[in-house]
């Protein structure tokens, strides 16, 4: 009887170890959901653009679009989420263009037409390459650059902001860390399987002195609202919080026109904004 029980226990441990090992190696495919094919270009959104190729520190070639707005030197550097590619961000791009900003949006390695495979260290390096494209190649002053990160892109934007201190930082529907996110989604396995990713947004934002706007919805079904609150609590002043309504992917649209108005107010408060400044 004891031998049967011992055998059952050993089999259970073996199964758990095998499953844990499988989960460990599956983590990249559980984090990143890149799509290679571009479904649109800014021309399809009625916007002029420059096709941009840049090189990350390890030589990986990245693809992006620079979308100009006449008579302003303010630029928004856009870090998208973990799924799709930049061609799926048209509605967001249109909002920021209406707010009077030049926009640079690009695909991380492995996404769209960018080379390579996504990794945490890799997309951080890609973020730095995008920053250097704006500051070195385009000659944009750092105080005129707004970093915007949505979902996973929030961690990327926060990491870069901690290093470069941009003019302003906007984090939308993002999480405090990969560990807290894993504890939420897989509370048991997150304590049994070592995490391969950190994405320590809270730790990064503690190092940011730029004005910060945190945006999140209590209805977010993917990234809990409290994780966005944790990011806000960790941020330094000056900081603001914008509460959305609606789900993770569509909350910014469901919250219109208040969403766009709040973004415009934040940008106007912390720097020059052409469209809003021209309004009576």
Can you characterise this structure?
- With 280 residues, this protein is α/β, with parallel strands linked by helices.
- The chain has 11 helices and 10 strands.
- Mean pLDDT is 88; it is low at 274-280.
- The protein has one domain: Rossmann fold (3-Layer(aba) Sandwich), CATH 3.40.50.1820.
- It has helices spanning 2-31, 90-98, 120-137, 152-164, 178-185, 189-192, 201-205, 225-234, 251-254, 258-269, 274-278, and strands at residues 33-34, 50-55, 61-67, 75-79, 83-84, 102-106, 145-150, 168-172, 212-216, 239-243.
- An 8-stranded mixed sheet has the order 2-3-6-4-7-8-9-10, with helices on both faces. A two-stranded parallel ribbon has the order 1-5.
- α3 (120-137) crosses α4.
Q: Terminal Cα separation, in Å?
A: 86 Å
Secondary-structure element string:
HEEEEEHEHEHEHHHEHEHHH
CATH topology: Rossmann fold
CATH architecture: 3-Layer(aba) Sandwich
Largest sheet: 8 strands, mixed
The outline comes out as: globular
Please count the beta strands (DSSP E, at least 2 residues each).
10
Radius of gyration: 20 Å
Helical fraction equals 40-55%
Q: Name the strands of the widest sheet in spatial order.
A: 2-3-6-4-7-8-9-10
Q: Helical region count?
A: 11
**Any low-confidence stretches, pLDDT <50, length ≥5?**
274-280
CATH first level: Alpha Beta
Strand content: 15-25%
- Output the CATH homologous superfamily: Alpha/Beta hydrolase fold, catalytic domain
């Amino acid at each position: 009887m004891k031998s049967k029980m011992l055998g059952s226990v050993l089999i259970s441990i073996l199964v758990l170890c095998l499953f844990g090992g499988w989960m460990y190696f599956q983590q990249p495919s559980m984090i990143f959901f890149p799509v290679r094919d571009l479904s649109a270009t800014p021309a399809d959104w009625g916007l002029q653009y420059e096709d941009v190729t840049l090189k990350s520190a390890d030589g990986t070639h990245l693809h992006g679009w620079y979308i100009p707005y006449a008579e302003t030197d303010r630029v928004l550097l856009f870090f998208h989420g973990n799924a799709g590619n930049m061609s799926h961000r048209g509605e967001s791009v249109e909002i920021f263009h209406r707010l009077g900003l030049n926009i640079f949006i690009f695909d991380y390695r492995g996404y769209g037409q960018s080379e390579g495979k996504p990794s945490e260290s890799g997309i951080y390096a890609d973020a730095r390459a995008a920053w250097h494209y704006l500051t070195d190649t385009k000659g944009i002053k750092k105080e005129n650059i707004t970093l915007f990160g949505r979902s996973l892109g929030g961690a990327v934007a926060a990491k870069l902001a901690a290093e470069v201190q941009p003019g302003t930082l906007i984090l939308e529907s993002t999480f405090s860390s990969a560990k807290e996110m894993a504890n939420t989604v897989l509370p048991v396995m997150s304590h049994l399987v070592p995490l391969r990713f950190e994405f320590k947004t809270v730790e990064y934002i503690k190092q940011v002195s730029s004005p910060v706007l945190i945006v999140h919805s209590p209805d977010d079904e993917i990234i809990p609202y409290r994780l966005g609150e944790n990011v806000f609590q960790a941020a330094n002043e000056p900081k603001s919080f914008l509460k959305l309504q609606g789900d993770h992917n569509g909350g910014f649209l469901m919250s219109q026109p208040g969403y766009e108005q709040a973004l415009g107010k934040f940008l106007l408060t912390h720097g020059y904004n052409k469209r809003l400044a021209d309004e009576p």
